[in-house]
């Protein structure tokens, strides 16, 4: 400000009349990057720094309000209909949606905003209204558009039941490959679940599953009692709803040979799965190896 002159009739700058001034520390002229052959700098930074300062102030105000036992008036996502649809698909609601006033209070928005969100779900047939009774979920329409996604193991049919043995469950960080496959930052938190699939005393498969640690941050309830996705729905309220899979034959390496008690070099069937929710947030990346011709895959 000290290097510019006022264009106002008073001769004053904003800094002269403001009660509080925050220096954004940007270069003079705002632009910050010099390019070869270009006399003027490019890439202004004031927009980025201004947004950072503004959001830092909002965050600090929220912290101070919480210290005073007050609830900050934080705006909810504009994608309320998408959030409600996600809850419907994952059976957060049984057959009926909560009332509009309850939803408005939960999302901290006006009742009219909730009505618009529900109207959009009515328009695609996912819910319907009954005068004086409420808004109900159209399970028939829902079934045509979405079905519960089974985990890879469930796609195999066998006359002999397949049991699951958990080998390890631990927190880890995404390396470069996992970060790229799951659309995460390098070093993001992951939950790594390693399992062995058994038919009686015989090991028929092995899986390593990486779950998005931002979403599934506590898997202490996961055990051998049932399919993984069912347990995720019970604990967190939702599981992956769509997946991309890659199938290919591979040769068994020494580690898998030891786990499956077979000879190194045997043929195995490999499934690589990337599973996500409706918003395309990747929730899982898994690698499953199966053996035994008695298993048939339903695709």
Automatic annotation (TrEMBL):
Residues 70-140 form the HTH gntR-type domain. GO terms for molecular function: DNA binding; DNA-binding transcription factor activity. The keyword DNA-binding applies. It holds the Pfam family GntR. GO terms for biological process: negative regulation of DNA-templated transcription. Keywords: DNA-binding, Transcription, Transcription regulation. SUPFAM superfamilies: Chorismate lyase-like (SSF64288), Winged helix' DNA-binding domain (SSF46785). This is HTH gntR-type domain-containing protein.
């Amino acid at each position: 400000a000290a290097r510019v002159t006022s264009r106002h009739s008073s001769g004053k700058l904003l800094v002269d009349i403001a009660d509080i001034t925050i220096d954004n520390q940007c270069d003079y002229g705002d632009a910050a990057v010099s390019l070869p052959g270009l006399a003027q700098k490019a890439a202004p930074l004031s927009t980025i720094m201004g947004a950072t300062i503004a959001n830092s102030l909002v965050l600090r105000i929220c912290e101070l309000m919480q210290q005073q036992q007050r609830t900050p008036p934080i705006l909810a996502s504009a994608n309320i209909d998408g959030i409600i649809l996600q809850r419907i698909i994952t059976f957060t609601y049984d057959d009926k949606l909560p009332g509009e006033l309850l939803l408005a209070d939960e999302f901290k928005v006006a009742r009219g905003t909730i009505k618009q969100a529900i109207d959009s779900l009515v328009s695609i047939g996912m819910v319907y209204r009954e005068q004086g009774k409420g808004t109900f979920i159209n399970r028939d329409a829902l079934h045509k558009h979405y079905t519960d996604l089974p985990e890879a193991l469930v796609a195999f049919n066998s006359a002999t039941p397949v049991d699951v043995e958990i080998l390890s469950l631990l927190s880890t960080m995404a390396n470069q490959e996992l970060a790229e496959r799951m659309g995460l930052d390098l070093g993001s938190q992951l939950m790594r679940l390693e399992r062995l699939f058994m038919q009686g005393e015989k090991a028929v498969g092995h899986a390593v599953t990486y779950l998005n640690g931002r979403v599934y941050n506590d898997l202490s309830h996961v055990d051998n009692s049932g399919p993984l996705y069912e347990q995720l729905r019970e604990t967190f309220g939702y599981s992956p709803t769509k997946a991309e899979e890659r199938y290919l034959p591979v040769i068994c390496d020494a580690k898998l040979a030891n786990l499956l008690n077979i000879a190194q070099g045997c043929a195995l069937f490999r499934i690589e799965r990337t599973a996500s929710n409706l918003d395309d947030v990747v929730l899982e990346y898994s690698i499953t190896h199966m053996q035994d011709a008695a298993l048939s895959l339903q695709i």
